[in-house]
Amino acid sequence: MPKFSPHRLIAIAEEIFTAAGVEEGEAGIVSEHLVLANLAGHDSHGVLRIPEYVEWMEAGDVVPGQHVSIIHETPVVAVMEGGWGFGQVIGLEAFEVAMEKARENGVGIIAVSQCGHIGRVGHYPYLAAEQGLVTVMFVNTHGGGKLAAPWGGRGRRLSANPISVGIPREDGEPLVLDMATSAIADGKLKDMHNRGVPAPAGCIVDADGNPTTDPAAYIGPPEGALLPFGGHKGFGLSFVIDILAGALSGAGCSREGVNRIGNGFLAVVIQPEQLRAGDGFYADVAGLVQHVKGSELAAGFDEILVPGEPEIRTRQQRMREGIAIDDTAWGKICAAAERYGVRLIASE
Ligand SMILES: NC(=O)c1ccc[n+]([C@@H]2O[C@H](COP(=O)([O-])OP(=O)(O)OC[C@H]3O[C@@H](n4cnc5c(N)ncnc54)[C@H](O)[C@@H]3O)[C@@H](O)[C@H]2O)c1
To answer: How far is the CA of 180 from the centre of ligand 1 (A)?
Structure first.
């Protein structure tokens, strides 16, 4: 299993994307995002995605060189289209608009459609929180609900419909909740399949609706489905996220006949000082962190972590020790590179 420094991995990703026709600056944004996902421990949204992104470009589903265009705007709202550009570029540009509105008017609400896959969702609320802004973000798959079964069903009807919330802190890195509403993310199952490890129980069903831990029985053919996390509650959350991200943005809700992969999203960015004068917000956040961390530990645990902390820990570790890429993913990355005349060597 080859191991890379983050710097080397970004350079590899950039080399492939530029060879495939992406302009250097844009290739850098996408590559950095993917490697930051690896650093955070979310390999499912890291460089594993390079071959898929290149294939989407080849199919014309993702179009390099696009920027957001605002199609409707008020002081606090912007409805935007991304021209099916790389989601990492469109996502950042859209967030710039939201953050500007939040700084000027207390809140910025953005609804975005025609946007390629935005990758690790928590990246955007994290950036806003670094600038002192709270974010609530809802994401769907632009109508292509082809992964998760509804509660009580076994057919693929919804996507993993993630939600992310970013909370700034006065002293310390932002708190970021960043989670799919399926019991497991589709990309994680592909990663587990590559590594030959079973999925956790209660996350997927096979094509007949039987519970399974075999990632291959989910991937198919015949295809199984993801289950919502937390039964009917996760399903309910996924269902309303599909409406918030899809129906409000114009990307559309999960439905039949949508094959193009992309993300529709809604983000509400808030400047906390507009709601709480002084440092009351930050004091309450710090108090809650201390309160939950002070709980007696349950059996089998040696620490209580708050949302975003596992990613920070993994990033610190992988910055020191490097990022290991499993052999299957590395083989696919090399094959994608070779199609564009790039020969990769699995060493620093
Ligand atoms: N772009 C898309 O369409 C899309 C779709 C689905 C998922 N994703 C991404 O996939 C990634 C993985 O999602 P996931 O649902 O598998 O994430 P996950 O289950 O690993 O983590 C979800 C959340 O739980 C927190 N967490 C994890 N372990 C914890 C612990 N022990 N104590 C306290 N908090 C803990 C994490 O900080 C995170 O906020 C995310 O980055 C998500 O944005 C993207």
So the answer is: 6
- pLDDT tens digit sequence for 210-225: 999 999 999 999 999 9
Tokens 């710090």, residue located: 286
Ligand 1 in contact with 120 (CB < 6 A)? yes
Nearest residue to 285 (alpha-carbon basis) of 166, 177, 167, 173: 167
Q: Which residues pair with 115 in a beta bridge?
A: 85, 263
Give buried/exposed letters for 152-175 (b at 16+ CB in 10 A, else e): eebebbbbbbbbbbbbbbeeeebb
**What is the CA(41)–ligand 1 centre distance, in A?**
10
What kind of fold does domain 69-176+232-274 have according to CATH? Ribosomal Protein S8; Chain: A, domain 1 (3.30.1370)
Q: How far is the CA of 306 from the centre of ligand 1 (A)?
A: 12
**Ligand 1 pocket residue status of 20, Cβ below 6 Å:** no
Whether residue 158 has its Cβ less than 6 Å from ligand 1? no
In a 3-state reduction of DSSP, which class is residue 108? strand
* pTM metric for this prediction: 0.96
Nearest ligand 1 atom to the CA of 311 is 37
Does domain 3-59+308-339 match CATH 1.10.1530.10?
Answer: yes
Ligand 1 touching residue 140 (CB < 6 A): no
The predicted-structure confidence for 104-162, as pLDDT tens digits, reads as follows: 999 999 999 999 999 999 999 999 999 999 999 999 999 997 899 999 999 999 999 99
Q: Which atom of ligand 1 is nearest to the CA of 187?
A: 10
Residue extents of the structural domains in the chain = 3-59+308-339, 69-176+232-274
